Automatic annotation (TrEMBL):
One of its GO terms (molecular function) is adenine deaminase activity. Zn(2+) binds at residues 16, 18, 196, 277. Binds 1 zinc ion per subunit. This is Adenine deaminase. The lineage of its organism: Bacteria, Pseudomonadati, Pseudomonadota, Betaproteobacteria, Neisseriales. It catalyses: adenine + H2O + H(+) = hypoxanthine + NH4(+). Substrate binds at residue 278. The record marks 220 as: Important for catalytic activity. Residues 11-331 form the Adenosine deaminase domain. It is an enzyme of class 3 (hydrolase). Its EC number is 3.5.4.2.
Length: 333
């Protein structure tokens, strides 16, 4: 089997995708029109042309502007359903989806509107297509600790629909330590914890995510490689890193995919996974990330198989479910 056939055929989990980052220009236009919200673009090509980011902040400015057309439960449903349809195409059989409540509640959209739209699309996809999912709500780290506490309180009535909390948005200058107390409270309530760290920020932020936020996974984490002791710790703990190659390329975390450290980390024994992050903005869903990475880093079929197994291993499904996916992967040749 060629690389691309194997990538297309293997079941996989996605563990790092922001639902607001799956907002394709076509749907953005349709929802803007439906809601009679003005957007500063005259057509879909205009929107795509605006996507010339050079770092995280230049991306985030456009990403938050795009999300501002989402107002009603139906909008969140349509957004999530479109992403899950892409999962079906890419053989993503399980997905753990981030959403940013504050991006919406700060605009006056109710928490319940957001969660109900996303959750209903997930339940429909489970029933119609057999795709399982979990939801992780992220605190925006450029906002205050107080705003994060408020968001946690708003989430409590919907705890049954949310498996964990995460931390995203502008990394540098907003270390994990800023959210130590709110993560402690979230964990007391039984939420699992993950956090973006070591994307643009230094290895120190990865240490803080582990030691202060007590995360079960690190999102991105690619800058951990700058610190040997940290690398050894990630290997010893088998702490998953949810790596996003095309995102790293678009946001200039790496200058070329061929310079990406994912393969090196995999060979050293780090539990790395491949994910799309914000696929509508970065030029590819999960399989495209696999395809371009395999080409740039000359990955073997065994590497690809291992990365798909890792995606389930690092997920929040049960051990029995993980074993069943490993067997499915072993059966495919
Ligand atoms: N990093 C930080 N914040 C984000 C990202 C990311 O990759 N995507 C969406 N919000
Ligand atoms: Zn991300």
């Amino acid at each position: 089997m060629t690389h691309n056939e194997l990538i297309a055929t293997l079941p996989k989990a996605e563990l790092h995708v922001h639902i607001e980052g799956t907002f394709e220009p076509e749907l953005m236009f349709e929802i803007a029109r439906r809601n009679q919200v003005d957007i500063p673009y005259t057509n879909v090509d205009d929107i795509r042309a605006a996507y010339n980011f050079h770092n995280l902040q230049s991306f985030l400015d456009i990403y938050y502007a795009g999300a501002a057309v989402l107002l009603h439960e139906r909008d969140f449903y349509d957004l999530t359903r479109a992403y899950l349809l892409r999962c079906r195409k890419d053989n993503v059989t399980h997905t753990e989806i981030f959403f940013d409540p504050q991006t919406h509640t700060e605009r006056g959209v109710a928490f319940e509107t957001v969660i109900n739209g996303i959750d209903r699309a997930c339940r429909d996809a489970a029933q119609e297509w057999g795709i399982s999912s979990r939801l992780i709500m992220c605190f925006l780290r450029h906002l205050s600790e107080e705003s994060a506490f408020e968001t946690l309180d708003r989430a409590l009535p919907f705890h049954d629909k949310i498996i964990g909390v995460g931390l995203d948005s502008s990394e540098v200058g907003h270390p994990p330590s800023k959210f130590e107390r709110v993560f402690a409270k979230a964990r007391e309530h039984g939420f699992l914890a993950v956090a973006h760290a070591g994307e643009e920020g230094p290895p120190q932020y990865v240490y803080e995510a582990l030691d202060l936020l007590k995360v079960a996974r690190i999102d991105h984490g690619v800058r951990s490689e700058e610190d040997d002791a940290l690398m050894q710790r990630l290997i010893d703990l088998q702490m998953p890193l949810t790596v996003c190659p095309l995102s790293n390329l678009k946001l200039s975390v790496v200058n070329h995919l061929s310079a990406h450290n994912l393969h090196r980390m995999l060979q050293r024994g780090v539990l790395v996974t491949v994910n799309s992050d914000d696929p509508a903005y970065f030029g590819g869903y999960v399989n495209q990330n696999f395809i371009e990475l395999a080409e740039a880093l000359d990955l073997s079929n065994e590497d690809i198989r291992m990365l798909c197994k890792n995606s389930f291993k690092a997920s929040f499904i049960s051990d029995a479910e993980k074993e069943a996916w490993y067997r499915r992967i072993d059966e495919i040749h």
